[in-house]
């Protein structure tokens, strides 16, 4: 009887160690158990989510890519930190970074962050639309006028595997803005000429510049040229 009890105890201990070993190799496993949101592209992660929450996430709310990349962030006190693996969580509206298997987010206010791929995000712009000074925008052009991109993420239920398991998806919506120094702005869901409507005070000159340079104004490159010309007037 005593031998059987010891054998059962040994089996339980081995099982627990195996579970811990499995969890330790999952990226951000400990934080996923707390937050339920993280890098969930792997089958192992999906299994973990299903067991813990009965929910499977088929993507992440991360920018600029679905996975974490190298980048930096600057705190309100001016301190800058270089990070090996980080992302912007558009659903939680915060910067997140990974250290080994753990997921963290800065406690101090972040005023700027960027990524090795070139994207730069800032806050503290004049309130516009339904955004306040705490909103982060990707800064595409930054001078007297600004070309900004805001990405909003919503969590949607898209399918059900069974009565216990549900599939959820982070749906991202992009909105572009041209913001003038006086706080006036124009917006569009795409990069196009509608964003230049706010420059109506120089419309004749702007139209001539676009025609002369044969710009289609459907790319960030074209729009930046127009904004740079407007700022020079």
Q: What labels describe this entry?
A:
2 domains; 5 helices; single chain; 233 residues
The fraction of residues assigned to DSSP E strands is 25-35%
* Number of beta-strand segments: 12
- Overall shape: it is globular
End-to-end CA span: 92 Å
Q: Give the fraction of residues assigned to helices.
A: 25-40%
Summed up, the domain count is 2
How are the secondary structure elements laid out?
Blueprint: H1 2-24, H2 29-35, H3 43-53, E1 55-57, E2 62-63, E3 69-75, E4 80-89, E5 94-99, E6 102-104, E7 110-115, E8 120-122, E9 137-142, E10 146-160, E11 166-179, E12 185-188, H4 203-212, H5 220-232
Question: If you had to describe this structure to a student in words, what would you say it looks like?
Answer:
The structure is a single chain. It is globular and about 60 Å long. It contains 5 helices and 12 strands. The model is unreliable at 5-53 (pLDDT under 50). The longest helix has 23 residues, at 2-24. It has 2 domains: 2-189, no CATH class; 196-233, no CATH class. A hairpin with a 5-residue loop joins strand 11 and strand 12 (185-188). It has 233 residues and is α+β, with helices and mostly antiparallel strands. It starts with a helix and ends with a helix. 27% of the residues lie in helices and 34% in strands. Strands 1, 2, 3, 4, 5, 6, 7, 8, 9, 10, 11 and 12 form a 12-stranded mixed beta sheet that branches.
Give a brief outline of the structure.
The protein is α+β, with helices and mostly antiparallel strands and 233 residues long.
